[in-house]
Design brief:
one-carbon metabolism (chains A, B, C, D), homotetramer, 4-stranded antiparallel sheet, 7-stranded mixed sheet, Alpha-Beta Plaits, 2 domains, Rossmann fold
Chain lengths: 307, 307, 307, 307
């Protein structure tokens, strides 16, 4: 008689926590966007076949049955990709992209994105990203954590990631952003705002040279401004949610990447709502970061397609 | 060899569709609300025990650890309740409610709520309520369907419910409301706005003499005004939802009863969003109506407690 | 002051209930499955481009990074498709499918699937399918409803669909199936078991000449056999679910198309679980039927890919 | 122009991460279970009122309308509870519990449960519990982590919790359990199996003197035995879930506390399913542990009531 499935020591089908990355050698990702017209899929797949690449996966989306925007994500396998990559990119630009007036991006799956995380005092989003990445779940390298407070330094250090304290208040914003830009510009492919509670200026967004992903709470109806969880409680909401989005100059209004909610009821206190909201935030943010790092997201207008 | 669980004809544990109502004979429901103070539960349960009633179920909620609002729903069984009811109500008022300055409501489970449904052209919420009620799921009697259009008459008739066409436009609102009030006042315990697309005036709300429940779509962020599904599509939302609430003079802003959402992605068209939104709307509205008819809801401030 | 968004009569962005079908003229759907190898996407898209077709949408999936099964769904627009269809199919078979040893299926979006629904006494799945189809949500024509009981005849008639009573018990199964096959064979593209509570024999499955979709309840853990909702209640489950699947000779064990669950707790009675389970069943079944009718599903092994 | 809601430094309504515990001084929790009969609520609330206690919250549940099992959880405030507690318990036993043949348990909210966590090599459940407890979310004191592997020692140490390595294999089970019992017996109020991959014997369960909570994956259908995620992938499941339950001698079959699921589709690899399953596991386990530590759970038969 046994109280657990007796399948031998640690052998229930779980991968070991330190499992290696998925096979990414010689795997390329081609993302593109252009005006829709006949022949796009054939042109791209023909180009890749001629180049000796095998298409592993292909997703495409057209915003309208005809005459809209066309987007495609193609994963391909090309032996010797690292050496062939620059020529492939140049050839694609000349032979396909210019012909269809395409925006495109070619990346190698074997090169994880370099990511900076900016945080303040809240630890839930930051630690979840660091922990998932240590497990090998996120396909990224965390280059640094930048915080306007020193509080989380001790929690970040065990992950072997540099923690950089850049004090920032409304008054010292200019100086803080100058310092942040020195750290970030050219060094990272993505900046994640993991509950970073300071305003970033349009100048910063222009100059940082990498996309930014932010996470914030979501309610129905919305509660803009201070103390949203308290006001959601006063309004008796039955759902608490979170939205991850790219940062644009529009206040919390950039292209949505992912959203989720959790049910609450009258027995939940403001503290409970905050705790449950934090649970949703860290899950939603980690999904958004993973999808970005896997080159799954194409932006158009104020929207995203997540393949 | 068989392709379905062979359990005999129609015997897989499903109740027959025409199953009778749950036992409600001699079952009473006591809802109350007052300022919180020690001794409330003891006073109410003592009163009921002295009256010969057995408490079947009791839920209570206090908005604060102390000094807040106290609400309680008590389901009890009292042999001979129909005859004893008026005396019980009077005694409770004198012996308990006046002492604690309580608002309270006593109802008999055996008396289903009399409900009017108001609709326009959309059928999904209306038909779902009628169908659920025919199955015996909603503990209500539908007294009438009032619509400002004649379109749905043929769909309502098979349910054996009166369909009353009261044309209403912005211009004829006063006359339409006069006619609606004649139909409703004193005749119903609840009015359900099942996608009724006309404004109701504050006067109507005051004079109708029954609470109103409304359903509307919900998005994160909110899209106020015309064409919300199209705008939600343009914004690339990942969730589409619905909110059922009591109607107050505040525009779509009364106490929330229930909310739910469904996931969507970039492949969903505006028509898909609308269809999925309708699915959520009918489920959320039917839950809200069921809970109201079971006397599960207590309002306070701009919130609800749903026991 | 108004209590509803005052956007004019019925003008809040909802489509009219009787909206026409999505544009499907000249739209074809090509589904294919074969062993994965380089050049598949290029070959198919090249063929379509040469035939003058514009790819509207393309989804593909490979079960392994290499060496697995490859599946693809391509939606294309080809002016004059109805006339060109047979030649297109023949050319594709000769020029592409034979070369790659493909299974494929070509269908026209403008030709809705002909569907038979089999039911017993439970109405929730049957009526939901009929109602959704009346709204134009399901891209199908319901050719007939076959039931082993007469109970639901009155509820089906208003939808203008033939209701055929074929009594069936364990003893009369052979005769009943003979009669059912006469009705179905060659006349329908899909059979939906909408809580049809009789066993179907392997002979029936072989001879009916159309795929069958079934819906059944799902629990964690599973409760096989009689009275599953009562036993789920006794086990204190916190989730109640439903699974829609293709019917195979394996008892309730065919390829899963869709699953969903709803939360329950100790306050829910067996009747509540049954009601909530029915809600999930009708939603899950309608999704599976819609996806099948849109040619979104490819089967392989005992699984499905739903594009 | 600003890209985040500018509400001042870190002032958006989030509590500081190091917020103190909820007020628990002089708060008691009384859980009871007995055969249902009239007068129970009155007897208990009358006793508490007479003792000078104010009922903060009361939940009760009867398994049948009459003649079933009655369960109640009462939260009360009694000034001077720590000193009065023993007398209160004795008086309740004599004056109420003995009269109704009640099982009951009286606890003080100010005394967090002493908890041992047992783990193996997987870190997700263990670290999530430690992290939530550091944030003050779980109302418990983690007395120790026991693991049959040394792998997680470095990850546990920063939380200031003793990590005790007790090697255990099928062969050394008796010796391992002897050592574990020395550590646990009398020292903890709860044992959490956070992906502990060793069998525990019935003797251990009897002698450990504290309830055990376990977490395991859940699928529809169930996949018993080795490699469940691989087999779920082969079956094409659309949901992956987890179940937290009390441990009994029945293999993975004790009273369910909480369940949840996450949607998956054909694009998810076995590794993705495992990762998403781990996400559900840690959330479901943490909810179960929280509810246990808040004395929200009453067991009866093979079920739980979670108030």
């Amino acid at each position: 008689m046994a109280t657990r499935t007796d399948v031998g020591a640690d052998a229930d089908g779980y991968p070991a926590p330190s499992r290696g990355p998925l096979p990414t050698k010689d795997v390329g990702r081609l993302l593109l966007r252009c005006a829709d017209r006949p022949g796009l899929v054939a042109a791209v797949s023909g180009f890749l076949a001629a180049a000796g690449a095998n298409i592993v996966s292909l997703d495409q989306h057209a915003t309208e049955p005809s005459g809209g925007t066309f987007m495609q994500r193609t994963i391909f396998h090309l032996p010797g990709l690292p050496a062939a990559r620059d020529a492939l990119e140049r050839d694609f630009a000349e032979q396909v992209a210019s012909r269809f007036d395409m925006d495109f991006r070619l990346s190698e799956a074997a090169k994880p994105k370099r990511v900076a995380i900016m945080a303040s005092k809240e630890d839930h989003c930051l630690l979840d990203l660091l922990w998932r990445n240590r497990r090998g779940e996120l396909d990224m390298t965390v280059s640094m954590v930048i915080s306007n407070h020193a509080d989380l330094a001790d929690q970040v250090r065990p992950f072997g990631v540099p923690f950089i304290h850049v004090p920032a208040t409304k008054e010292t914003r200019a100086e803080a952003e100058r310092r942040q830009l020195e750290l970030l510009r050219g060094n990272v492919d993505l900046v994640v705002l993991a509950r970073y509670m300071q305003v970033l200026t349009p100048d910063f967004l222009v100059n940082v040279g990498a996309p930014l992903i932010n996470i914030h709470h979501s309610f129905l109806p919305a509660f803009i401004g201070a103390a949203p969880y308290r006001r959601a409680k006063e309004r008796g909401v039955k759902l608490v949610g979170a939205t991850a989005h790219y940062v644009t100059e529009e206040l919390d209004d950039g292209p949505i990447i992912e959203q989720d909610v959790v049910r609450v009821d009258h027995r939940h206190t403001v503290e409970d709502l905050t705790r449950l909201g934090a649970d949703v935030e860290r899950v939603v943010l980690s999904r958004a970061v993973l999808w970005h790092c896997q080159d799954r997201i194409i932006r158009y207008g104020n929207q995203t397609v997540v393949f």
